[in-house]
Amino acid sequence: MVTAALWSCAGIIAAVGVLLYARMSYEARLHAVTDSKVKLEKLPKSFDGSRIFFVSDIHKRKLSEPYVSSFQGMVDWVILGGDIMERNVPLERVRENLRILSGLGPIYAVYGNHDLKAEPEGLAEAILDVGGVLLKDENLLLERGGEYVCLTGVDQPPNKRDGYRRIPDLPREAQCRIVVVHDPVWIRSMPEKPASLILAGHTHGGQIRLPVFGAIRLNGFYRKYDCGWFSWYQPKSAVQRPQMLISRGFGNRRVDLRLCCPAEMHLIQLKQARDDINH
């Protein structure tokens, strides 16, 4: 009887393990887009309602062309937040992913740490081949209806000890700035956040998260800034209410498993923030 009970218990544990693995594998392979609306300070009227398709940390995954193509006509700009590839990923796979994304709109990208360890020159060429722009501590003006928003790409330092370079000043044509940076740790070097919107990735949201406890593989700065939306109030700054999105990322690092942290891409609709509304 005792032996039968032990076998029964072992069977239950094995079944739970199989179900848990299946769930973790499903979350890691998911094609899903998180839909957000964000009210931005100083956003020009002509940009109200415009949309960004934001993808970070693709790593070695392949994009589904039928799924991505379903967003055609809904996107004004595609922004890639780095780690577009990693070591041992065929460049042809990267090119195919970029081709699929370019069907939605013009591509703007920054390097991530794994891009620099893989084939940064090949990646830069692949981005250029689809008409995209790789931003390395550079401003670019997005135009809509004769008005402008400044898109600033923060270059990934080869080593964290090297630190980040100073971003260029806001051009006179624009009052609203969007910053794309791979690693959100960049904000540590910014006592005053210099953008209405900051888009980042890198953390994968921890990839494995437990209820209540949260991400089991993140610590320090990243325990606080793990994933999702963050905002500040800096009343004496040029930008009083900056906001930041940290993506959980589309790809996976080390293991193709996620828990309570499904893979995601983003469709972000930009809205004007009235002076009497706090987001």
UniProtKB/TrEMBL annotation:
Residue ranges constituting the Calcineurin-like phosphoesterase domain according to the UniProt record: 51-205
The cross-references to Pfam families, in alphabetical order and at most eight, read: Metallophos (PF00149)
Source species, domain of life? Bacteria
Coiled-coil positions are: none
InterPro entries noted in UniProt: Calcineurin-like_PHP, Metallo-depent_PP-like, Metallophosphoesterase_sf
Record SUPFAM superfamilies: Metallo-dependent phosphatases (SSF56300)
Protein name per the record: Metallophosphoesterase family protein
